[in-house]
Structures are given as C-alpha cells and as structure tokens.
Amino acid sequence: MEVGSATKKLQCQRIGCNAMFSDDDNPQGSCQFHASPFFHDGMKEWSCCKQRSHDFSLFLEIPGCKTGKHTTEKPVLAKPAPKHPVAAPTSSPDANAATKGSCSRCRQGFFCSDHGSQPKEQTRQTLNTPVQAEEEKIESLAPPIKKVVIDINQPQVCNNKGCGKTFKERDNHETACSYHPGPPVFHDRLKGWKCCDVHVNEFDEFMEIPPCTKGWHSSSPDQAV
C-alpha cells in the first residue's frame, strides 16, 4: 500500500493576506488582499480602496478589498511619481512694510488678514495652550487598566508589533516574543522601525525586517509594545 506525502503548505505573498495554502486547495476568491499601500505625512492609506489610518497596527487590520487566488509571487508595487518642490512666492520687507503702511485697518490697529497683527510665535503659543490643557485633562480622567484573568492553556495571538504569533500563557516567558518596541517610521519613500534604525524603500521589504527585541508575548492591545 502506497502512502502519499502530506500536501506542502505555502504562504501567500499578496499584501494583506499571508494565509497558508496548497496548490490542491486554492480556489478563485479564496485570497482577500490589497493592491498597494500609500504613506504620506503620517497617514497610511490603501490606494486600492482609499481606506486609511494613522495607526500602523489598525492599518494592517483593514480587510482586503480584492479577491483572487493565493500566490507565492510577490506583487510589484507601483512607485509614485517624484514630486517637484514648488518655491513659495516671497516679497521684500520694504514692499510688505509699504503695503502695511497704506492699509487702513493696520493704521487703526485692527487685525488684518492680509498683513497680520500678531507675531507668529505668539499666535502659535496662544493656539497650543488650550490644546495642551485639554490633553492633560483627558490623561487625568483616563480609567485604570483592568486586570483580565485568562486560561493559561487558551491559544492567544500576540499583538506586539512584528510578532503576531499564536501562543499559550503557560509557554510565555521573557524571551518568547521577537518584536519591534519602537514605532514604525514612514518618511518620504522610506519605511522602517525607529527602534533598530533599519529603513527600506519597498513595503514588502519593510514587512520582512526582522524583529530586534526579545520579550513576553502580549495578547492585550492596551499592553502590547
């Protein structure tokens, strides 16, 4: 009697999927994925469905908007066209002073939207002060973290950045988890981790940057690092 070998499991390389599959079990529509990400000024966005988030962990949890078959081929991401900086128009101090002197509102001491009546530093400080006071008020009213009792044999998913593995609390220890403690950094076309100072250009290369720190697994989003 001939015994067949177990079907080899492969990992899908589509962005937003990463599921395990086999060639014998890969029907059309089994893969749910995104086409390509876009990062700009701290905002993370999927260019295919325009779903966006400031938080990188929440960004990765946005369900894929496209379906198809699983594949082991890495997607080719479209590179954005380079942006050419545009020089801001400048005016000479003499011309600005002459214009301000001929303005009736400026001469009478009223605020003028064209020339301004307050120094920039003073205006920025006036705007920031109420915001800082509101942030301190919110922090003081934040409820304490609740303790959760869990089964040590219950499978859990680690929420530490760069980990995402399934673990049991009985097997958890101080070097069980490999993760990135620092936040992800997206600047211009570079993507990387602040904790290990590794930056790459492509999104799939960013997802493959190996974790730089060992620690405990954590399934709590509030306590994850």
Automatic annotation (TrEMBL):
Region Disordered, as annotated, extends over: 76-96
Q: Which PANTHER family match?
A: CYSTEINE AND HISTIDINE-RICH DOMAIN-CONTAINING PROTEIN RAR1
Q: Name one GO cellular component term.
A: nucleus
Q: What GO biological process, any one, is recorded here?
A: defense response to fungus
InterPro entries in UniProt = CHORD_dom, RAR1
Which residues fall in a compositionally biased region of kind Low complexity? Answer: 76-89
Picking any one GO molecular function of the record gives: Hsp90 protein binding
What organism is this sequence from?
Arabidopsis lyrata subsp. lyrata (Lyre-leaved rock-cress)
The alphabetized UniProt keywords are: Metal-binding, Repeat, Zinc
- Sequence ranges assigned to domain CHORD in this UniProt record: 12-70, 158-217
Superkingdom per UniProt: Eukaryota
This chain belongs to the protein called CHORD domain-containing protein
